[in-house]
Amino acid sequence: MDPNAAIFELGQIKxxxxxxxxxxxxxxxxxxxxxxxxxxxxxxxxxxxxxHTAAFSGEMALRLDELQYEYGQGPCLAAARESAVVSVPNxxxxxxxxxxxxxxxxxxxxxxxxxxxxxxxxxxxAQMQLAMQSRAxxxxxxxxxxxxxxxxxxxxxxxxxxxxxxxxxxxxxxxxALVERATRPPGLxxxxxxxxxxx
Length: 199
Description:
Blueprint: H1 3-11, H2 20-34, E1 42-47, E2 50-56, H3 59-71, H4 75-82, E3 85-88, H5 98-106, E4 112-115, H6 119-149, H7 153-167, H8 171-183
Antiparallel strand pairs: 1-2, 3-4
């Protein structure tokens, strides 16, 4: 795949419609299609509780990752810990992680390329996803208010902001409660305390 097309496709990922695992799965599949010679791709995240594979494009990638976690060493772990690029051009000649490399060759891997990213990258992705979800629910709540009150988007936002301030709740919480109330089956709706009043 052309790198420009890959970048465009990355930009089309809708963070508000999937979780972090879903985003990383799409990224790993895109990397497999874009990087010349890449047969399988995985994403390793390292947190306080240890390393884990957050996404993978094939079973071989997952098995090789899990071997690294078992041995406590390998190219993905080294790349992640050092935020570096770690290349293994010939797996059968690899001497840095001989046990892992021998198993990798047995498993059909002949070379590997690991690119380390800061943990902050994953944290940022999670924060972006939350922000997109917040934006989506706020837009939904604005639409409900606009429909009920026949007002403009700015006026609807002002209503949400006032309820948020008056009730000392986050804007997203107010919006989510309104959306939940509006989508609740008719028999389960509670007393709204007046037509058109957000929660």
